[in-house]
Design brief:
With 514 residues, this protein is of the alpha/beta class. The chain is built from 16 helices and twelve strands. The chain has a twelve-stranded mixed sheet with strand order 2-1-12-11-10-3-9-8-4-7-5-6, with helices on both faces. Helix 5 runs antiparallel to helix 7 and helix 8 packs across helix 10. 42% of the residues are buried. The C terminus is likely disordered.
């Protein structure tokens, strides 16, 4: 990026000396804090591009849209050029290799996970469920596992919830009480999540973590930018997604100890959203992830307005700090200011609390870890200008970057393989067919029974008729002629008489001729 930093370090700015961040201590995490408009995004940008130049992949959420300029070469003005010269820095103009991601698939490649990978704890946080409702959600996940039901997208989860509700008695006996009212509450939460765009998060192909950890042909780490200007409007969805991503990195990556440089640097912007109203169980998970993920080679930088936004258990693990100006107009802000000042190793040259309030734009108090892991004395530092563009890219520039992306075409087409929804739908279809077949068989049997009864009735009637006709047949057999018999005898006599006369006439005629 420049020649101002020693090998193994990133040049971040100048106090009375160059201020650098050691790569081999970067996985001890960090904090970038300061009020709106004081230069946090620029600090994030120069850190991200510095890591990229060192061959370290980066992930960062772009909540305002202006971090996207990291993909384009900068156009230094006179002010930035003068600042660089004052730091003995030769300012180059180049963008970082960038991959854009977007939960909604509009300003970047679609990024998805599955309901199963998200898990009931984070999903409960996303749906704002209470302890009882979270417990029922856990039961739904267990039932799905036992029944071999894959939970990939929200319609799978809806189908599983319906299945549990319909089989409430058997589920109660096996796993504990599951009320229809609680199931209904979870279903309403899912409906709300869908209206916020949460359905886009769940499905396949799911994000492969390896695609966030790429290095280009020139050896530079890819900078993964999540377009979050729309996503941030659903704060819980935003915060839970980023926490899920951190959790997945923690679960899947192997232990590597303290590497010479991180395997991935993760910037968590608007970090206060992660901790606001978070239940104790979630805070414990965040603390565990932050504490242990550094041994996986992942560095986490929390970006927020005030260090007081971050719980002490997490804040104590953030060794590299960049504090921009804070304003302290209210008692709460003054308390946060004192907390921020007390977290630094004092510098006898100035009062830390006073200096934080008078820092200019692009200035920060910087304290980083040395080779022994000890925080350096806090230094009032002018942050270096970035080599990439300050401000957003254009839609055309973004499309060009996306066309050349190493994951172009990998995630765009949604896949919907057989999972809980399809399996339960097929089961319901088979059950409905079996019911219809049983009903048809019953109707056929009923019809046959009716026909047999009618036949039996008809046969009985014939038998009665035959019995009534039998006496008349016996009387005719005693000598009394029927009309048909009399007519037949008369006809025979008539024919016989005529034939006799004809024969006699023939004989007589013959006698007369002789």
């Amino acid at each position: 990026m420049d020649g101002a930093s020693d090998p193994g370090t990133l040049f971040v700015g100048f106090s009375d000396k160059p201020e650098t961040l050691r790569l081999d201590r970067a996985n001890r995490h960090g904090l970038v804090a300061g009020a709106t408009g004081t230069g946090k995004t620029v600090t994030l940008q120069i850190l991200a591009q510095g890591f990229s130049d060192a061959g370290v992949p980066v992930f960062a959420a772009d909540v305002k849209g202006d971090l996207s300029g990291i993909s384009q070469p900068g156009s230094p003005n006179e002010r930035l050029t003068a600042r660089a010269e004052g730091m003995n820095l030769t300012l180059t103009s180049e963008g970082a290799p960038t991959v854009f991601w977007d939960l909604f698939g509009e300003k970047g490649h679609p990024v998805r996970t599955t309901v199963s990978e998200m898990g009931p704890l984070l999903l409960a946080r996303m749906l704002e469920l209470n302890d009882v409702q979270e417990g029922v959600l856990n039961i739904v996940f267990k039932v799905a596992d036992a029944e071999g039901l894959l939970l990939l997208d929200l319609k799978d989860l809806q189908a599983a919830l319906k299945y549990v509700a319909e089989n409430e008695k058997s589920v109660d006996a096996e796993y504990g009480n599951v009320s229809a009212a609680t199931i209904g509450t979870i279903q309403r939460g899912l409906l709300t999540l869908e209206t916020q765009g949460g359905a886009n998060l769940f499905g396949e192909p799911a994000l492969a973590l390896s695609d966030l950890m790429r290095v280009n042909a020139a050896g530079k780490g890819m900078v993964n930018i999540l377009a979050a200007d729309t996503l941030i409007q659903s704060p819980r969805l935003y915060a839970t997604f980023l926490l899920w991503l951190l959790s997945e990195l923690f679960e899947e990556l192997p232990e590597i100890g303290d590497p010479e440089k991180p395997r991935l640097v993760f910037f968590f912007d608007e970090a206060h959203l992660l901790f606001r109203d978070a239940p104790k169980s979630l805070l414990q998970k965040v603390e565990q992830v932050v504490r242990l993920i550094r041994s996986k080679g992942v560095s986490v930088f929390f970006v927020t307005q005030n260090p007081a936004d971050v719980p002490d258990t997490v804040l104590s693990q953030l060794g590299n700090r960049f504090q921009h100006a804070l304003r302290a107009y209210t008692p709460g802000e003054q308390k946060g200011l004192r907390a921020a000042a007390s977290s630094f190793r004092p510098n006898p040259a100035f009062d830390t609390a006073e200096t934080i309030q008078i820092l200019g734009v692009g200035e920060a108090l910087v304290s980083v870890l040395d080779a022994k892991g000890i925080p350096s004395v806090v230094a009032k530092t002018k942050i270096r200008p970035p080599a990439s563009r300050l401000g957003p890219d254009t839609p055309a520039e973004r499309q060009a970057v996306m066309r050349l992306s190493p994951v172009s075409g990998v995630y765009e087409a949604l896949k919907d393989r057989e999972s809980a929804f399809e399996i339960l739908k097929a089961r319901a279809g088979r059950a409905a067919k079996a019911t219809a077949d049983e009903a048809e068989a019953a109707e056929t049997a009923k019809r046959r029974e009716a026909e047999e009864k009618a036949w039996e009735k008809e046969r009985a009637q014939r038998d009665r008729d035959d019995r009534q006709a039998a006496p008349q047949s016996r009387k005719r057999a005693s000598g009394r002629q029927t009309m048909t018999e009399a007519f037949s005898k008369t006809l025979v006599r008539t024919i016989a008489s005529q034939v006799g006369r004809e024969i006699l006439r023939g004989i007589m005629g013959g006698l007369k001729r002789r």
